[in-house]
Each structure stands twice: as structure tokens, then as C-alpha cells.
């Protein structure tokens, strides 16, 4: 049985996005990376990965990607990523693999490793440890989340394994809605959890337990063995880096 895939391709700025302007395209998802639109790169990788499909793409302007998507279903995205995921999952169901259109370096072996390690939980998120990223992509500047037992960067790979995983998406929605109101975020997560996060005394096990208490879902951070999995194309310097990596790895 194939695993459905959701690709998030939305952009708040549309054709005014810095990368869209840089690539002279109507949408960030169409930005050429080493001569190929990055959305097309992601779709090719999904097609090359055994056991995946059908594919759903979430974007605010479906018309602009019709020529790239083949048999994929296109949904109009919601105002935020969390809302887009929630609306799409209501239609797709679970389990479902979620990735993003700006994951231009995505490789089948990363997906296969992630899925093999993510079994048995309600929601899993792929991450790369800081040491792994610095080993494989020396000199890169990534955003890291620091827990007391690990520092990591996200890899834009998620598995919503069961309907309980949907509860975590709802928690994400609430946090996004309150992102400019720290007190409300603290009340949502719990003040103790937030303080431990700020002081870097929160470890991954405590984080899992807190999320499970709030949502009923068993969650896991899945560490990937290739630090390049943490490289997405979110700014001009990322485009340069991605094209350098592709030039080094493409036969």
C-alpha cells in the first residue's frame, strides 16, 4: 500500500518573494535550482522513492504549477503552514508523509531512512544534529533548536502516522496563532516547559512527554545521518549552497 505525500509549496509573498524575484519566476516553488524548478526536483525524488504516492500539493496559486504536477492533486493553501497541513490531512487522511517544495536536495535514501526510523509513533519529525550538519555542510549557517541533550536543525520531513498526529497539528496551529503573544504561548505549552526551553534545561524526553500530555500523541524527533538533509532553499545564500552541493554530487 502506497504512502500518501503532501508537499507544502505555499509562499506568503507569492511573486514578491525574494527568491521568486531572483529567479524571475511567478512563485518561489518554481525557482530554478541547477536549471530545474525546485518543486519539480522534489516531485522527481518522490517518484523515485518506492512506496510513495499519491501526491498532494498545497499552494496558494494552483494555476502557476499545473504544468509541473502530472497526476498530483493540487489544493489551495491556507494562510499558515499549520492550517494548510490540517486542511490537507482532513482530505488525505493518515498516515501521510509531509515535505516542502523548497527541499531541493531531497534524496530517496533520506526519505527511506526517515520512514524506517519513524515507525511506531503518531507523529515524527526528521532532524539533523548540529554536529552532523557541520560535518557534511561545513560553513553553512542553519537555524538550530537547542535542547539539553541535542541541538538540531529541521529537515522538512514529517510523518503523520495516525489520527492522533492530527492533534499535534492543532497544537502547532494554536502556537502559530499566538506567536506574537508570549504569555499565551506559555499558557499553551506550560510555563515550566517554556522556562526549561529558554534555559536549555529541557531535554527531548521531557518535550515528548509534554506534547503527549497536551495532545495524547506519541511524537519523536528522528535523526538523519546526512547533514545535507537540513539544507532547504529559503534565501539567496541557500540557493548558492544547494547548487554547489548538486554540482559536487551529480554525475
From TrEMBL:
Residues 22-126 form the MobA-like NTP transferase domain. It comes from the Bacteria. Keywords: Magnesium. It holds the Pfam family NTP_transf_3. InterPro entries: MobA-like_NTP_Trfase, Nucleotide-diphossugar_trans. This is MobA-like NTP transferase domain-containing protein. It comes from Gluconobacter kondonii.
